[in-house]
């Protein structure tokens, strides 16, 4: 599928960066495994499965495990498209840079805007998501009775976690990489290790159980009291697939740290593909083990009513449970650290182009640590402000025209619904940018190229993203099964507000003017000329 270009050797990473108009400022110290680790811990099968297993099995039954193949295959196509772009444009900022060079300054700025907000929201969601596990572990160890639903305690624990993550990210790229690398080992223990422990303890079902729905498509036997009208493929599966969809992304962060990766044109595309593949394998193994370990009788209902993963793991000894809690907490921690690191590189890349308010300050690189310290600090502050949104939570449904904001749903949860939809939107816009570039005659010159597979892979990628984006944001009502993943019109409402704020800044602040000064690519011009000469030569030979 891929071919190797001849343009940039490992020692020429900085030269390639300069050919794109940027002075090397960050510390280029990461190898393939470090780059892969950041991408893999952002994707984090542990965080995703331990957060979403209950919803997956409750909406799709045991057979939901096979729906994992859809986002894995779809995102592998996307990773191939991004890999080719990353190889040609090995610049911090990834999607923003790819779109900016492929289509234009305004388009690229909007892609980066959606992607950046989604990253900040993701850090807030991940860091607040760990609170229940911290409460459980401190209860076991110290007898504390922390309340994971108490807004004040959520805020304190999250701010402590955010402060530690920011400090580690500030102190150097190698530190961020070590946290991510250790996070990979934790993910291995928390997925394959737990699967082996559950198998040794004894599964309660055979493999045939994984191909059954256990009647979840019927209202009378659905443990979440959902009504899919008796339809699995056209009802339950369309919702259950969102559980793995909310897991399989984050691989693109390998491109965000391109300027800190050695031989980025070769290693970043590899890291992206590996993150998707191993993320899919780890998710399949852990999900399968958890499903087979569910109770022998009334499996789905008992598991959902018992609380999901913690209920399944209660059969293990207290010591094993505590170890698992430690692994889960670190998985959340390393995931948040990697997402924050990727987001800070996007902010740095944005600001270096003059695309943000206070760009001069945000784009400064600390001379001691060679990290974008100000971008990290500003991102942490915004994340902390997002965390404050756990406090607003109406006691009754709020009706605004045709939109209903449901009771007892805090504002952060509503914003988190943009986390995944914003990622999918920015992904889709970036793949569309690749299509636009190709129709304009763009010729990839990086070390990873799709060759003759470029068009079918790109079309497949945009088709997957478009269909799944609609599935993620479709407003089907606050009482529908989809409401567990998408709060009706609230998701689209949040997206509209973020788009409107971006449009206002674009109209009045004109950040595209700064971006437009950084869209020249010497390699692309030389490559285009070379291909024109080759085409002319081929035409001459054919005529002769």
Q: How would you describe this structure in keywords?
A:
disordered N terminus; 544 residues; mainly alpha; Amino acid/polyamine transporter I; two-stranded antiparallel sheet; 23 helices
What does this structure look like?
With 544 residues, this protein is mainly alpha-helical. The protein has a single domain (28-391, 406-543), classed as Amino acid/polyamine transporter I (Up-down Bundle). 66% of the residues lie in helices and 1% in strands. The chain is built from 23 helices and 2 strands. It has helices at residues 13-19, 32-43, 45-60, 69-88, 95-102, 105-129, 131-142, 151-170, 173-201, 232-240, 242-245, 253-256, 264-292, 299-306, 309-313, 318-352, 359-362, 373-387, 411-439, 454-473, 488-509, 512-516, 522-543; strands at residues 398-400, 403-405. Helix 3 runs antiparallel to helix 10, helix 7 (131-142) packs antiparallel against helix 16 (318-352) and helix 8 runs antiparallel to helix 18 (373-387). It is globular. The two termini are 32 Å apart. Residues 1-10 have low confidence and may be disordered.
Q: Give me the side-by-side strand order of the main sheet.
A: 1-2
CATH superfamily: Amino acid/polyamine transporter I
Number of domains: 1
Q: In CATH terms, what is the architecture?
A: Up-down Bundle
Largest sheet at a glance?
2 strands, antiparallel
Query: What do the pLDDT scores average to?
Result: 91
Shape: globular
Q: What would you report as the Rg, rounded to the nearest angstrom?
A: 23 Å
* SS element count, helices: 23
- Share of residues in strands: under 5%
Share of helix among residues?
55-70%
Low-confidence stretches: 1-10
Order of helices and strands: HHHHHHHHHHHHHHHHHHEEHHHHH
Amino-to-carboxy terminus distance: 32 Å
CATH class: Mainly Alpha
Number of strands: 2
- CATH topology, by name, is Amino acid/polyamine transporter I
Class per helix and strand makeup = mainly alpha
């Amino acid at each position: 599928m891929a071919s190797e270009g001849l343009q940039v050797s490992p020692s020429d990473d900085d030269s390639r960066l300069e050919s794109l108009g940027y002075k090397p400022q960050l510390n280029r110290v990461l190898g393939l495994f470090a780059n892969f680790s950041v991408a893999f811990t952002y994707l984090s099968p542990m965080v995703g499965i331990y957060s979403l297993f209950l919803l997956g099995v409750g909406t799709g039954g045991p057979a939901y495990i096979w729906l994992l193949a859809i986002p894995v295959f779809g995102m592998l196509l996307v990773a191939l498209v991004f890999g080719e772009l990353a190889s040609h444009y090995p610049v911090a900022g990834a999607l923003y840079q790819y779109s900016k060079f492929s289509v234009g300054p305004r388009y690229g700025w909007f892609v980066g805007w959606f992607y950046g907000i989604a990253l900040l929201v993701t850090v807030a969601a991940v860091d607040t998501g760990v609170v229940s596990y911290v409460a459980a572990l401190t209860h076991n160890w110290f007898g504390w009775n922390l309340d994971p639903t108490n807004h004040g305690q959520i805020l304190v624990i999250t701010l402590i976690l955010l402060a530690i993550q920011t400090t580690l990210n500030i102190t150097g790229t190698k530190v961020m990489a070590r946290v991510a690398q250790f996070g990979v080992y934790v993910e291995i223990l928390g997925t394959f290790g737990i699967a082996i422990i559950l198998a040794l303890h004894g599964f309660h079902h055979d493999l045939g159980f994984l191909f059954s729905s256990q009647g979840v498509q019927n209202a009378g036997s659905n443990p979440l009291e959902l009504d899919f009208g008796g339809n699995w493929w056209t009802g339950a599966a369309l919702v259950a697939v969102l559980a793995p969809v909310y897991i399989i992304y984050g691989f693109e962060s390998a491109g965000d740290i391109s300027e800190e990766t050695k031989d980025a044109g070769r290693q970043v595309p590899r890291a992206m593909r590996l993150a998707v593949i191993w993320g899919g394998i780890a998710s399949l193994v852990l999900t399968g083990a958890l499903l087979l370990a569910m109770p022998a009788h009334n499996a789905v209902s008992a598991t959902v009513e018992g609380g999901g993963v913690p209920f399944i793991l209660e059969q293990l000894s207290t010591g094993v449970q505590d170890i698992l809690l430690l692994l889960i907490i670190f998985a959340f921690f390393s995931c948040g650290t990697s997402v924050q690191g990727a987001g800070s590189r996007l902010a740095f890349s944005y600001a270096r182009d003059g695309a943000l308010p206070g760009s001069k300050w945000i784009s400064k690189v600390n001379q001691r640590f060679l990290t974008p310290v100000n971008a990290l600090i500003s991102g942490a502050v915004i994340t902390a402000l997002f965390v404050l949104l756990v406090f607003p939570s109406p006691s009754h449904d709020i009706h605004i025209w045709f939109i209903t904001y449901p009771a007892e749903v805090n504002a952060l949860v509503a914003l988190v619904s943009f986390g995944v939809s914003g990622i999918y939107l920015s992904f889709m816009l970036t793949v569309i940018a690749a299509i636009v570039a190709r129709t304009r005659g763009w010729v990839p010159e990086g070390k990873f190229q799709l060759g003759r597979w470029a068009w079918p892979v790109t079309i497949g990628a945009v088709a997957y993203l478009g269909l799944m984006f609609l599935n993620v944001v479709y407003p089907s009502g606050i009482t529908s099964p989809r409401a567990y993943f998408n709060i009706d019109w609230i998701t689209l409402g949040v997206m509209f507000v973020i788009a409107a704020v971006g449009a206002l800044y674009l109209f009045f602040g004109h950040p595209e003017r700064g971006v437009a000064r950084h869209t020249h690519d010497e390699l692309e011009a030389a490559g285009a000329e070379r291909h024109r000469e080759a085409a002319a030569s081929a035409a001459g030979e054919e005529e002769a």
